[in-house]
Amino acid sequence: MTTSHAEADTHDREDSAGVDLTALAKYLNGALEGGVTGDLAVSLISGGRSNPTYRVADADRTWVLRRPPYGHVLPSAHDMKREFTVISGLAGTAVPVPEAVLLCEDKDVLGASFYLMELVDGMPVGTVEQASALTPDDRRRLGLDLADTLADLHSVDPDAVGLGSFGRPDGYLERQLDRWSRQWEASRTTDRPEVSVLLDKLRRALPTSHFPGIVHGDVKLDNVLASRGDAGKIVAVLDWEMATLGDTLADVGIMLSFWDQPGAVDNPVTKGLARLDGFPTRAELLDRYATQRGIDIPDIDWYTVFADFKIAVILEGINARHAQGDTVGGGFDDVGDMVGPLLHRALDLAAASPVSELRR
């Protein structure tokens, strides 16, 4: 899951854990125009449960450095080139992204590929505490702007921004089911029979894709920054590690999975965030998105059930890395406890769905 750029934390492990400052400075002196000025300072940015993300500064400039997790990384996951490519392509579109600065695929520098991007001066809004500081009007406008921003992303012509070969929309949902099934088997720390039940339901009810486009893969308020001058306006969309070309409604399912509602079981990641006064309802969010895109959306339950499953698999992978001591920073101790509730929430939604194949 993501990090915000806004604030750095000091944790039990050294802030620059995993970052060889000497090697980084030597590389940047050769790769950056003008090199670096003075000594580099590096601090871990708080909030991330996936890719370690650092604030890197010399005497004159500040950047954000993203690298893959430490320890075991699942195949095709945490691809730094993927993130760098998509934010480079989206520069200049209606989708607000940080400026891509530099990609390093030489693993000898820091032990893994990494990239630098612009440090966006924005405000994190991805926790109940952060969003509580906003007014109800700001929260409503922020929620609707998330739907608008997602519609803007899905309206981008991949070929027009150099991303036409970024993925294969045909067969995307089938491949997603296969991928996340494999990743569950590769990272699971305990047996959970509900996984096979969910996968059986999802395969039987697999919808036909009608809306191909650029998919972000992890749409939630924790992956955006709001304007410091207008908290209802998104100034950056972050965390593009799962971006590809695919069925854009998969992003809508993820957005709704993270959009908690009164009377429903919360997503354990967001902990009731969207239930704060002012945020639009799921129905309003979905209607706003459909209106902005000018499309009629079929039943969305399959995509929301799949989103809960996918998020559970991601959390299980993070939990496995944390158990092996391969995470940096805090906020990991309760990750394993989130997996079961998400799987059960997905089963409950499937059981109540008007989609008969999901109910069976």
From TrEMBL:
SUPFAM superfamilies: Protein kinase-like (PK-like). It holds the Pfam family APH. Residues 42-263 form the Aminoglycoside phosphotransferase domain. It comes from the Bacteria. This is Aminoglycoside phosphotransferase domain-containing protein. It comes from Rhodococcus wratislaviensis NBRC 100605. The lineage of its organism: Bacteria, Bacillati, Actinomycetota, Actinomycetes, Mycobacteriales.
